Structures
1.
Amino acid sequence: MTTRKRQSDRQLLAVIGYIFLMILAVFCIFPFLLILSSSLTEESKIIEDGFQLIPTAFSLEAYRILFEFPDQMMKAYGVTIAVTVLGTLLGLFMTAMTSYVLARKDFKWRNHFSFFFFFTTLFSGGLVPWYLLIVNYLDLKDTLLVLILPMLFNVFYIIVMKSFMSSIPEAITESAKIDGAGDFRIFLQLIIPLSKPALATIGLFIALGYWNDWYNALLFISNDNLMPLQYYLYKMLGNMDGIRRAMLGSGAVVTTSIPTESLKMAMTIVATGPILIAYPFIQRYFVQGLTIGAVKG
């Protein structure tokens, strides 16, 4: 009777857990459905009735304006994809190498380098010296490198990766050294395969940072052919707001004819779509990496 009662309690607990997760999933999906519905609704209906889960007046005007110049949109997408892919690969490789060195207990300078990295999280030179360094000394203005290099290192990611690599048994590296393997071979053939969960987690964070970045483009990009997607959408939204204010000031036309609110929602769909598609492929590594990084201090 005790065994049957335990099994029934487990089944009841599992049912309650699944119900709770389903409710939580609905709450998570609801904002995305609301954004999608608002992007397909006429601007006048949004102003009159607010945001609705089901479009009351279907309209593709926001997407028509968004893709009115498809060449520019595709260029912006291409720049963002190139920067995200290159930046993620380089940033992940550099972060992993730095973390592996700092995790090695036989590296006598690791505490000094850890202090140097941590010091940068507390103090910085400021915006003006950084701008002068990028533009006047490194001469990176209006180049793809200016969208990659400033975000290549993140000290927080190094700390998380270092914590994960510290959990790898030292016997693995010691046995590889006995077999004659060098440090770089140990890193590539042993440490990297064992660090897939952490690499997937940090890689997703780095990719999101590059994908959503617009501030570096605002500072250093004046060439329209090098504008990333987020900065292109930012400029488009700014232009639409300017036109709306001009119409409102003149009073010559109805300002609700410009789909400002629905355009914002359409931009959100366009900007987040590729990331939402890519996330399920690394979800299991992402969850495992977060769990281990949180437990291992």
2.
Amino acid sequence: MQNTPNQTPGDDRVVSVREVGPRDGFQNEPETIATSDKISLINELGQTGLKRIEVASFVRPDVIPQLSDGIDVLRGLELPDDVERMVLIPNSKGLDNALKVRELFDAATLFVSASESHNKANINRTVRQTMDDVKAMGSRVVSEGIKFSAVIATSFGCPYEGKVPMDRVLDLAEEFAEAGATELGFGDTTGMANPAFVSRFFAEAIRRLPEVEITAHFHNTRGQGLANAYAALEAGCRSFESSFGELGGCPVPKGSTGNIASEDLVSMFHEMGVDTGIDLEALIAAAARVQEVLGRKLTSHSIVAGPVDWTGALMAVDAG
């Protein structure tokens, strides 16, 4: 990776950036994106250097019709062999359906909300009911040789209950780890995190779960997404989820806007001298393409500004 003037000498940190836009992003769009467009966009993302893309969900089609073509999307993908295909599985019925096409994906995400109110609003179950189901599903996922990734939503605050105790979140994380999860993602589902708390949270998560990969998933609802990602990085986190074009959000409650843009996150890391293994220009091009498909401008800054240019090629025009 080429050094930039902002790089800290000796800063050789490497992070993984995981793309969730084709699932977390597309499911929140008011319109349904054509299957062929989804396949084309995901294949384009697969050429950017991303090593994992969340591509589909096994949620009931009547609940999230935008993702009802998930199996067709999976069948149409042509991704490099080293790109992991991740799917979201909400419950045991979803897992039954997923295992019928086991050969089409590499990893599965199971999830719960740390907040009782959000969990009930989101999937109409208590946290304990969800965790009991998750443990049973986790055993099946592991037995099938599928990578088991867990996500805890509302890890940094709930719009219904307010503060969510850190210990409650990390206790759930430990339950997931005991059930076989090798990765734990902590979601700022409605954009309530702040950098100071994020720093303390990830330091403690890494301390309590030393054998599990810890992933940060931030939303930009209140404009603090990149600041929170920086705080997590400084606390030792080396895995991040984001969405190209800043697509996404949370349907419960209304007003929860998108994830941090993958291209903005990668741009920040590169300017800091942090290696992602991703071709930023190719990622920006993919984000611009989804903007064309949707027919509207997205909120990603890098789509507009592009990568930072350190060559000085942009010269001022002499008005005289």
